[in-house]
# Entry
Amino acid sequence: MTRILAAAGIALLLVAPLLTGNTFYQHLMIMVLFSTLLGTSWNLLGGFAGQVSFGHAAFLGVGAYTTMLFYLKLNLSPWLGMLAGGGLGALFALPIGLICFRLRGPYFSLATLAVAEIVRLVALNWEQLTNGPVGLLITTLPQISIAGRAIDWESKIPFYYLVATLAVLAMTLIYAVSRSRFGAYLAAVREDIDSAEAVGIDSVRVRVLALALSAFVAGVAGGFYALYFRYIDPDAVFAISLSVEMVFIAVVGGLATTAGPIVGAVVLVSVAEVFRERFAAGHLIFYGLFMMLVIRYLPEGIWGRLRLLFRFAQG
Amino acid sequence: MEIFLQSVVSGVLTGSLYAMIAIGLTIVFGVMRIINLAHGEMVMLGMFGAYWSYVLWGLDPFVSVVLWSPLMFAGGMLAYRFLLKDVIPKGELNTLLYTAGLSLFIANLALFFWTGDYRTLNLPYALMPARPFGIAVPIALAIAFGMAIALTAALYVLLSRTDLGRAIRATAQDPQSAALMGVNVQQISMITFGLGTALAGAAGVLLVPSLYLYPTVGEILIVKCFVIVVLGGLGSVPGAIAGGILLGLVESLGAVYVSVAYKDTIGFVLFLLVLLFRPAGLFGVGRT
Amino acid sequence: MPHILKLLAAVSFSLALSSGALAQDTLKIGAPQPMTGPDAPFGDKFLKAYSMAVDEINSQGGVNGRKIEVIIEDHQAKNPLAATVAEKLITQQQVLVLTGGRASGQAVEIASVAQRLKTPYMVDHPSADIVTAKGFEWVFRNNPTGSIYPEAFNKFISDVPGAMPKSAAIVYDNTVFGKTIANSAMTFLKSKNVAIVNDEAYPVNSLDFKPIMTKVKASNPDYVLMVAVSTTDAILMTRHAKEIGLTPRAFVGFGGGFGVVDFSKQLGPLAENVFSSAAWSGNPNEPITKEFYAKFKAKYGFLPKEHEVEGYSAIYIIADALKRAKLTGNLDADREAVRQALLKTDMTTVFGKVKFGNWTGPLGDQYTNQNIYSPEHSVLAQWKNGELLNVWPKSNAETAYTFPGS
# Structure
């Protein structure tokens, strides 16, 4: 069943942008896939490993700035830049993990929040490196050719396929993790750290690895953000609201599920757009209400609930 | 020397402001283990209450606090009963996100009805500060400081000397044992949440003559709250007060003697250090 | 009552008139603005200004017989959203030209989108130099850049005898707005050998300025210069400065927060004699500007300032270009035609004269399509009795300045 869904999903993904000539809809699709990437990143640490982080924007921001700076100052190709962004994000996560994983529960969450804010303030003030509040702007993307044809960066299509590939790769990673022994360790740690340690699992190492993978994905997503939006400043990429949004995508979709984030992303992006259209002045009122209703009635997430219903239907 | 004294006085007074806001958050966390992200909005509602009662009925906020506290208490209890009660069993993360949605909802509802215009409440008798020994002491802030102390003392008496207070503390320590001892945990939770909301509202009322108000002011306040609550120890009221004053001092002295640009960073670094090395708070009175 | 009207106005402005015959006839102007979130009050100012201009133009026959319409989209003061709604306006609503933006971060995103999607963007208010300093030929700006804001102040201290500060403390917010203006002011002061005794960048939306002002007081500066993009910062900063007992020869505010009516409403007597450099809102001694102020006040109940004048003028500039552009119905060609028309703009609005050109700014930025009259569009004003009155240069002055020793 899952394989059929996955295959159908990938097929849809491949043709989606070609179904419409409307660049705005293509943009929305890109936003959905970008949000999926964010949700997947967070889900790895928060859903599978049970470590609720409120500072994931830090890794996204690190990735974004890395990619931007490598491109603008060192002329490094954006592909490599994104990888570098992911890599630096992961590297950055190591000391953070070692520090924060000494804490549990809400203390851990608050610590991640503090870390993200510190990173934001440093980015804001360390002008020699980040250009401070003025931010960094890309005016032209490099001439890159694939299979002999130059990429037209003015069109949304290359960005779509780029983010779609990233999203699929990330989801595959999660799927692989969930099926592996590592995934079992994560589940054990999520349920009860002490019991996990008691059976010989090195919970710190397991969590740090999960964090590093999660940060890698977030960093790569940050790199994509930089290339797609072409402008970053500390308040855009290190914002608390971005961290909270990442959590929300994963939770609304369904924690600890592979497909949860994409469902969450689709729902949230559409809802935000529809509310902005129909309610103009008061749209955030309805968005807040929507958040409350989903959490109240679908705490296992939309996809989580669908899965339960499937299982129920199958008997 | 004068600079140092002025920094200290400013820091302590501003810190007490912060502390007032944080007390409500820490109580709710202590008893119910929930981090209420809508806390800032409750402060905002208190601020608007004080503002409207001043503008429409001429009530001085230091008087209208007596009106708004019980109203917010009732409001908080209703919010618990009809909104939070069914969400809490779904887990800490879900509850937290629920309050995030609530925060968005309340702030934007307020924005819609009251517009985003910045307002201040200027008390005619508090325009210029008092200057004992040449140190500027803003009057409204000093009065708020005094009333905050009174409120905290009252809270202390409630928590330590009354049966209700004992029940609250018992629930905070261990809800299951408390239930076994005959405490109606649901009811206590409801009362605690009402109390937390009332304290937030009262803080808003006392604050408004010294600050400013607009519907989304909550988002700035809430982050400061977290820092204080952790510094002082999650769940501890005296800890929140001490934490608030400490933060006020650190920011004030930090701005003057270290760097203005990084003054917020200092607070966060301190926050992290406390979390790591003294998770029960600087004074060791918080829950771990 | 007003809330419902506002909701209706906002809804009618932001829903695309995609069905019905009207769509073919109206000339569409897109305007991303913050309609919700902390910047909402500013979005509202532009809504009022745009509507007034649109109503006037349409009631006088529109542009070449066709009505114009402004479609406002809410970007909530978030950069990625600004990019999103700009794209939406360009591709979904198919507007001919963009304006608005409000804050610099969002404006940069919108400019980037406009440049790539080849749609003219006539900037009305955002001041970040970078918006017209990147060589974007599709982006035009009527209002002065941040680095130009201190011009009038610079002229004042140079021209008025005894006004050159002996020392200056400068306190500014850690945003692109604050830093640019502070930089520009300090560069000028340094060139005149004025000692900068404090250079403090504070985090925007601070709750407490007493520590900063304590520090400043210790250096005993001759002038205290304050930059605040946020109204709350401007108000609190001034109040705390006075509470701490700072008594420089002059308090000079730069930027948004110091030029809005809330500043004096909330501070009362504490606002008296505070200078404000940059809050250019047209020359009040010009008849058309005076007439606009009266009309606006009659309709909305308060005097228009910077934002309202800029928004109103922007629509007139765009309408002027639309009138001269040969529109054929082919969207791409029409946008290019509007761009060409904008390049040839040479007119006077209630804001002032406007002609777009390429020149170098005070901090060395190379501008493209920046209003060549911008250096004139900086004025030094002073708060007197709750009113913000221009005091320098003399040609724009509404009243004499109040200054110790003058």
